[in-house]
Amino acid sequence: MPMNFSVIHTDKETQARAGILQMERGSLETPVFMPVGTQATVKSLSPRELEEAGAQIMLNNAYHLYLRPGTEIIREAGGLHKFMNWPKLILTDSGGYQVFSLSLLRKIKDEGVEFQSHLDGSRHFLTPESVIGIQNDLGSDIMMPLDECVHYPASFDLAQKAVDRTTLWAGRSKKEWAKTQRGVLFGIVQGSTYPELRKKSAEELKSIGFQGYAIGGISVGEPQDLMYNMISFAARELPAEAPRYVMGVGLPEDILEAVSLGADMFDCVVPTRYGRNGSAFTSCGKITVRNGAYSRDRTPLDPRCDCYCCRNFTRSYLRHLFNTGEILGLRLVSYHNVYFFLDLMKKVRASLHEGRFASFKREFLSRYRQKEG
Amino acid sequence: MPMNFSVIHTDKETQARAGILQMERGSLETPVFMPVGTQATVKSLSPRELEEAGAQIMLNNAYHLYLRPGTEIIREAGGLHKFMNWPKLILTDSGGYQVFSLSLLRKIKDEGVEFQSHLDGSRHFLTPESVIGIQNDLGSDIMMPLDECVHYPASFDLAQKAVDRTTLWAGRSKKEWAKTQRGVLFGIVQGSTYPELRKKSAEELKSIGFQGYAIGGISVGEPQDLMYNMISFAARELPAEAPRYVMGVGLPEDILEAVSLGADMFDCVVPTRYGRNGSAFTSCGKITVRNGAYSRDRTPLDPRCDCYCCRNFTRSYLRHLFNTGEILGLRLVSYHNVYFFLDLMKKVRASLHEGRFASFKREFLSRYRQKEG
């Protein structure tokens, strides 16, 4: 089915915008944060907790699910929504990034990529076409094509070759997708830190034509300024009428900056990864729950937060749970962190609708940068 | 405040009975299963999940909480109910068992027990009086006195000495409790596997006088028959008008047998411990979630169960979560197991109220013993 994306508000001071992305299964209000459920579960959280926290969409990873439990099991279950009991939208990452970062002994050629599983060493061959097939089996609402991602720093030559292959694969992905036209297919802009390559990549993808565009290959170790520059540059090269998804970003300050630069969609493992380690995001900055200063602190993680964790538990109790290695501790902090990110986006959208995004961003960052616990 | 225990139904074929235990904070329908939250959390579950699963009371451990986070922190928080945000009843085990099983270099004398913490080697001295003080600080609804528990097998002489000390300490605990009369204090019958010692222990406790009686020192490695004999024997020696709590029991079949023998209260770590390891209790017996046979099994853990896990997730998905080491897997199976135990007790109570306990027990066990997955 055709996707519809409407930009409802554009900010006067920045490139920020608020919109609605409508798809067959439901719609998304943007800017949106997508909690990451790599292996068909957002780590430590249940689907009902995600819905309660306000998640509109979950991100899953085709590479991981292809290896475990295997595409066939999920297809037989009626797709990923039924398999993990998630009624809302699903975006699946193709796993291009994982093939390059996790797998062993990979051999990349224009046809596709041969690799050994990081789990058991088994050999696999993925092509742009088979990756679309996998995502069709998963029943994704938004699919990403197989792309070639380079690390930072990458030479111009290497980055250019990756762009060329990403374009080649994007075209083949689009053709494969067009056979069923299930879900929505995005293109992924690569080009490392080279503006001319980002421009080339964006133009080539535009000429293939996608319903949305992702900016990939960022947040891979480059300095923050460079990341912002690449987002800004790529966003300007992409059509205003399509959603822009900044892959793997990021911390609250990075998301706010990327929104300012015109990005609409975000995903990051940070809320749950930090949560498991006992780092909580609060309106006054990050705090380390194990910190001895909280042993008798009977305030919530974030007094400005309305989440289940903050309405019911004290820092003192959470610290006790982390000190004793109890699972409830990492569950509650993960929940709070996901809620915090989703709530931040809700406030971003409200500020855009009310024409006060720039001042919201300023005030949020000024409080957020107060301290580090 | 005075506790009130009313036996509402007594079974005609067995010693089983259904009753109501009324206390200041609320009441309990018996027979009751008490989920174990040793360190102020039932492992992996949130308080709202416990309430949803039907828990009426949580068991916590004074020894563990005295060591971490320390009694003072919990007292300052307004007690354990507020500390862990649990509005329902709390029974605290004294930690007598833990002093004997976990602590290092313990020296026991009539005055009390000196030991080194199993966590950091710090030295502590607990007396019957200080253990009541700790439970007062915790704000327990039902307190257990410090007792001396022996392992199985124990010589008659050793078991007799433990009974003598348990009686001595029970008297001093009662005196200490009487100063504030907060909560309800139970006595603990010891005596290992010696009927004459069990009788002696019960009689001495009765002459001190408690509002409820626990049967301790069982489920410590003795054969099942011997355990049932000791429960049966001790129950007969205890006053019919007081609740009988069988400590640390047990598996569904053991609980049903103990109910038949006249026991009213139970606790066990089994539902959450098995849950973390991927063993699920079902109406047709235990199943091992990781079993390859479940990789494509789209039925719930237990088709007869109405819990959140069984209403929403398949064995195939749960197996995937365990295979990938995802926390949601152990959470869901722990939740299901706790629900299963609480639901079993609900059915036991209903069958007692309707005068069909013996046939309920027979039918349950016949289905439960069908298979082992």
From TrEMBL, chains A, B:
Active site positions, chain numbering: 93 (proton acceptor), 267 (nucleophile)
Gene3D superfamilies: Queuine tRNA-ribosyltransferase-like
Record-level GO cellular component terms: cytosol
Cofactor note: Binds 1 zinc ion per subunit.
Pathways involved: tRNA modification; tRNA-queuosine biosynthesis
Region (RNA binding): 248-254, 272-276
Binding site for substrate: 93-97, 147, 190, 217
Purpose of the protein: Catalyzes the base-exchange of a guanine (G) residue with the queuine precursor 7-aminomethyl-7-deazaguanine (PreQ1) at position 34 (anticodon wobble position) in tRNAs with GU(N) anticodons (tRNA-Asp, -Asn, -His and -Tyr). Catalysis occurs through a double-displacement mechanism. The nucleophile active site attacks the C1' of nucleotide 34 to detach the guanine base from the RNA, forming a covalent enzyme-RNA intermediate. The proton acceptor active site deprotonates the incoming PreQ1, allowing a nucleophilic attack on the C1' of the ribose to form the product.
Protein name: Queuine tRNA-ribosyltransferase
Lineage: Bacteria, Pseudomonadati, Candidatus Omnitrophota, Candidatus Velamenicoccus
